C-alpha cells in the first residue's frame, strides 16, 4: 500500500506545484494573433546569428557532427573559451575550469543543483531574472532579494546592506551584471569586496555575466569576477552565446568554475541533458574566432536604440528611467501605474507594443516595464511613439 501523503493537487513536489508561470511569456501569449505587434518583450536582437557562425554549424551538420559529445562540451570549444576568457580578462583561465552547457539558463540550473539543498537560503541582487528565482525554488531553496537603489537617474548596489542580510544558512549569493533589466553594471571594486566577504564565510557566488560584452562605455567587456577571483574561490561564472552573437535559439552557454568542480559538472551535464547540441557547438567555436566584428557592430546599434529610448522617455515627466550602462533593456516606471502585468497586456492589445511587466522581476519591481531596444532605430522609434500615445491616453 502506498503510505505517501498526497502532497499537492497534482501529487507532485510542493516546490514544483508552487512554481509561478514566467510573466514575460504570459504577456507574449496575449500578443499571439495581434497584428503588427512590435515585440520588445524577449531579450533578443532582431538580426540573425552572424553568417560565419551559421555556416560553421551547417558544415558540421553536413559533415555528420550529429552524435553525442563529451558532457562538458567538445574540446575545440572548451579550448577556445579558455583562450577567449583569458584574453578578455587578462588572466589565464585554464580549460579545465570551462564547462559548456546547453544554454545559460541550464548553466544556472546546474549551479543551483550543485549548491542548493532544501531549506538553504539564497540571497540575490534584484531586479532578478525570474528564472533564477524559480530555479532556487525548484531546488527547494529559499530566495531572498535585495533591490538595487535608484537615485538621480542611476542604479547602484548597497553592498553593506546586502552583506547585513546574509544569514547562517545563506549558501549562495546571486548577482547579474550587466543587469537585466536595469543595465546596472557592477564595479571591479564591488566584485573584490563580495569575493572577500564570501571567502571568509564559505559562501558561493554565482555571477551571471551573459551581458558582459554588451557595454556602452567603450570597454571590451564589463568588469568580471574572473578578473578578481582565484581559481579555487567559490565563484561560478555563468555565460552564454545567446546575447553577444544573437544565438538565443541555439542553446549554448558555459560555466567557469573552480577546477575541483570539473567532475561535478561532468556528472550534472550527463544527468541533465548529457551534452549541448554537437553541431551548435561548432557554430559557437566560429562565434569566438570570427564574431568580434559582429559584437562591435551590435553594441553600436544597441547604443543607438538605448539613446533613442532614453532621450524620448526621460523627457516625459510621467516616466522615471535611468540610462543603462550595459545589456539591452530600458527599465522604466510610469506615474500612477501600479499593475505592470495589466499594463503590459493592455499595451499589447491597444498599442500593439510588447513589453515585459516589471513584476516578472520580483515584487520590488512592480510599477516598472522593461523594453528590449536591440532593434533597428526605426522599430524603436515607432514603439516609443506608440508607448507615449498609450501613456497619454490610457494611463491617466
Ligand atoms: C540575466 C540572464 N541570465 C541568463 C539568461 C539565459 O540566457 P540563455 O539561456 O539564452 O543562454 C538570460 C536570458 O534572457 C538572462 O537575461
What features would you describe in this structure?
Helix 8 (188-201) links the parallel strand 7 (170-176) and strand 8 (204-208). The radius of gyration is 21 Å and the shape is globular. 40% of the residues lie in helices and 16% in strands. With 396 residues, it is of the alpha/beta class. Pyridoxal-5'-phosphate binds at residues 43, 103-105, 129, 176, 180, 208, 210, 240, 242, 248, 253. Pyridoxal-5'-phosphate binds next to helix 5.
Topology:
Layout: H1 14-17, H2 23-30, E1 38-39, H3 51-62, H4 75-89, E2 98-101, H5 104-115, E3 121-126, H6 130-138, E4 142-147, E5 149-151, E6 154-156, H7 159-164, E7 170-176, H8 188-201, E8 204-208, E9 235-240, E10 253-256, H9 262-272, H10 278-290, H11 292-314, E11 319-321, E12 329-334, H12 340-351, E13 353-354, E14 356-357, E15 368-372, H13 377-394
Parallel strand pairs: 1-13, 3-4, 3-7, 7-8, 8-9
Antiparallel strand pairs: 2-10, 5-6, 9-10, 11-12, 12-15, 14-15
The structure holds pyridoxal-5'-phosphate (PLP).
- Beta content: 15-25%
Name the helicity range: 25-40%
Largest sheet: 7 strands, mixed
Total count of helical runs of at least 4 residues: 13
In this entry the ligands are: pyridoxal-5'-phosphate
CATH architecture of the largest domain: 3-Layer(aba) Sandwich
Amino acid at each position: 500500500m502506498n503510505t505517501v501523503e498526497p502532497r499537492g493537487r497534482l501529487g507532485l513536489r510542493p516546490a514544483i506545484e508552487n512554481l509561478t508561470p514566467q510573466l514575460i511569456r504570459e504577456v507574449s501569449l496575449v500578443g499571439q494573433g495581434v497584428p503588427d505587434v512590435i515585440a520588445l518583450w524577449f531579450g533578443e536582437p532582431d538580426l540573425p546569428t552572424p553568417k560565419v557562425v551559421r555556416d560553421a554549424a551547417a558544415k558540421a551538420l553536413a559533415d555528420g557532427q550529429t552524435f553525442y559529445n563529451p558532457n562538458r562540451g567538445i574540446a575545440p570549444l572548451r579550448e577556445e573559451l579558455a583562450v577567449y576568457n583569458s584574453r578578455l580578462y587578462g588572466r589565464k583561465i585554464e580549460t579545465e575550469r570551462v564547462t559548456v552547457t546547453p544554454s545559460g539558463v541550464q548553466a544556472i540550473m546546474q549551479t543551483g543543483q550543485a549548491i542548493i539543498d532544501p531549506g538553504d537560503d539564497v540571497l540575490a541582487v534584484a531586479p532578478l531574472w525570474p528564472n533564477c528565482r524559480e530555479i532556487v525554488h525548484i531546488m527547494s531553496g529559499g530566495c531572498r532579494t535585495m533591490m538595487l537603489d535608484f537615485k538621480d537617474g542611476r542604479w547602484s548596489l548597497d553592498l553593506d546592506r546586502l552583506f547585513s542580510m546574509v544569514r547562517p544558512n545563506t549558501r549562495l549569493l546571486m548577482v547579474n551584471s550587466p543587469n537585466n533589466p536595469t543595465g546596472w553594471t557592477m564595479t571591479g571594486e564591488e566584485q573584490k569586496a563580495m569575493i572577500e566577504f564570501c571567502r571568509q564565510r564559505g559562501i558561493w557566488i554565482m555571477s551571471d555575466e551573459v551581458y558582459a560584452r554588451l557595454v556602452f562605455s567603450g570597454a571590451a567587456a564589463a568588469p568580471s569576477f574572473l578578473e578578481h577571483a582565484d581559481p579555487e574561490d567559490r565563484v561560478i561564472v555563468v555565460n552564454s552565446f545567446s546575447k553577444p552573437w544573437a544565438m538565443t535559439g541555439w542553446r549554448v552557454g558555459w560555466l567557469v568554475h573552480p577546477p575541483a568542480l570539473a567532475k561535478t559538472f561532468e556528472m550534472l551535464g550527463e544527468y541533465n541533458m548529457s551534452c549541448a547540441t554537437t553541431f551548435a557547438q561548432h557554430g559557437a567555436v566560429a562565434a569566438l574566432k570570427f564574431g568580434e566584428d559582429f559584437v562591435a557592430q551590435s553594441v553600436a546599434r544597441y547604443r543607438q536604440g538605448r539613446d533613442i529610448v532614453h532621450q524620448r522617455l526621460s523627457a516625459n515627466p510621467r516616466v522615471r528611467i535611468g540610462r543603462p550602462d550595459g545589456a539591452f533593456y530600458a527599465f522604466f516606471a510610469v506615474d500612477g501605474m501600479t499593475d505592470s502585468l495589466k499594463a503590459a497586456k493592455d499595451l499589447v492589445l491597444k498599442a500593439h507594443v510588447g513589453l515585459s511587466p516589471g513584476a516578472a522581476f520580483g515584487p520590488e519591481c512592480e510599477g516598472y516595464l522593461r523594453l528590449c531596444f536591440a532593434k533597428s532605430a526605426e522599430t524603436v522609434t515607432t514603439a516609443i511613439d506608440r508607448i507615449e500615445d498609450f501613456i497619454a491616453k490610457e494611463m491617466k
